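Follow-up to my earlier ticket, as requested here are the two runs.
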Amino acid sequence: MKVKKSTKGLNNMRIKARLNFSSIVTVSISSVAALLAIITIVFVVGRYNDTLTYSAFPQGDIGKAMTALADMRSATRTIIGYDSQEVIDEMLIVHDQKKQELENHMATIKEFMISDEAKALYDKVTALLVDYYALDAEMLKDGSSTNVAMSIYTQQRDVKEMAPAYETVYSAVEDLMEYNVAQGDDTQHSLQAATNVLVILIIAVVIAAIAVSMAIGNRIAKGIADPLAELQNR
């Protein structure tokens, strides 16, 4: 009677169902870990691309714009300071080239200004440039003359008006650069923090998967071993 009872218990263990359940649980938890890893990769890559596009890439164009502005200013000062018509004509060509480069860089930068703060900084630079161009045109008109008196007058205006105007524009462009650098740094820090959190979460899920799998495995093993031991003893 006891042998029959033990045999009946052994037959009711449903080992296949338990093993299937264990596999499903393990695979499910592992799938969650894999899904989190994929989400992490997609998130990090997406934010990284956004940082490159809207923070890193504009920095190069902003730097080139600053250089073009400085070269344009240098050409204007040379035109004002020299009385040689040959030098003046040569520097007028350089001046116009640098001005065109500056405008081209500003047009490129505009495409990457997507935030309200970035747009406001960009609009400030462009507004200042309009006034700067107007003053610069006046200085070139008067300063390109070989007349000594006119040259001296223009040089005095350069010190009083042109130099402060240039510093104001250049400072505004620097603000735009600093904003983009700060945005890039902030994004880098947030990506690092998000990556650390997600990595810890993935590790926790993997550890949970191992723990659950071991617990289910032990339970199945115990469910098999105990009836067999009981049957053996009987």
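Run two:
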Amino acid sequence: MTDSVGRRRIRVALFGLFTAAGSLMCTTVNAQTAPPFAQLFDETEDAPRQIELEAEVERAEGLARQARARPNPSVSVMTENVAGQRPYNGFDRSENTLQFNQPIEIGGKRSARIAAGKAGVTAARARTVQGRLTYAYDLARAYGAAEIADRGIGLAEDELEEAEADLRAARALVSAGKEARLRSLQAETEVNSLRAAVDTAKAERIGAYARLSALAGQTTSYTALAEPLLARFEPRANYGPIDPQQTAPYLAAKAESEAAARRVTLARRQAIPDITVSIGVRRLEVDKANALLAGISVPLPFFDRNRGNIDAAQAEQRSADARASAARLEAEAEINAALALNEAADARVAAAEKTLQTAEETYRLARIAYESGKSPLIELIAARRGLGTARGVVLDATAARLDARASLARLQGLTITGEPVQ
């Protein structure tokens, strides 16, 4: 037991040493080492999910710029009194008109359209902040999953080493005639099973790093982490308060509601007919003279009063208002749950660590008792399995604490390492 604990402590020390070296060397030395989380998040601007969020904002900004555009004028040329019967069979009596037509928006359409465009940009930016927080949450979980996979291999290898030590002890007792050969076979079966567990842990590690690399937008999979993330978290006395009306989901929903209200105003104003002012010059060939033309045209809203678009915009506003109300209630529920889960996660980790200490002492005593012939092999195997279970419980509790911290950070508008997301 003492040798196993010593080897495990040496492995932990080496892991810390390599981590510190990786933090200094960063990715310029080893392109397959993921940088510290805060640096990795800053460097993922070209990740597909980040590009998609930026594109949504650019789309809204483009629509807002277009909303400022005024109607284009038109130029028309018309020839009359030609190609007819005499005396209009030629161009001697023709009347040629060059006319300039300018539509003029009335009723505040342009100002309403500009306001709707600005509200759309605000909503897009709010959605982008929400999306970036969700991305930071997913990236933190993927980063933590890679570290947990590393630790999982270490735990599996520790248990395998302990099982191999138990096998050597069983074989020594069998050789001395103090134990039946069946016991060494049982120990050997345990070793074979744990070797398979090590292989499984290595396969899970490959998958965890592949998911982290894909999320970060890397074509080459990471193979190591420059900085551990799980060790950053310490218990706190207080995790709140958090204002639900300042959470990203609620702010995004509120911005969507305001944008929908602007679109209702725009739809109503679009029902007001526009006028078209015309001015032109007419050439009268028969008199060899020019004359000015001026006119105004106004459409009559007999058939199209934009009622369908107004009703649709009002329904969209009601839906957006409902989503904002739901987002506020959901934010309150998520905040309460996150605060409780973080406190529970701290307690769970503390309890798991105490359980691990007890399991380590139990295995140590069981190993001494077995080697002195005072207890059967089955008790030693049970003690070692209990130790392996306790280590897994600590790892699971640490993973749960990571999830709880990531959820809390998302509600606070931060990354898991405390950087604000904008």
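The only thing I checked on run two: The chain has a mean pLDDT of 87. Let me know what else you need.
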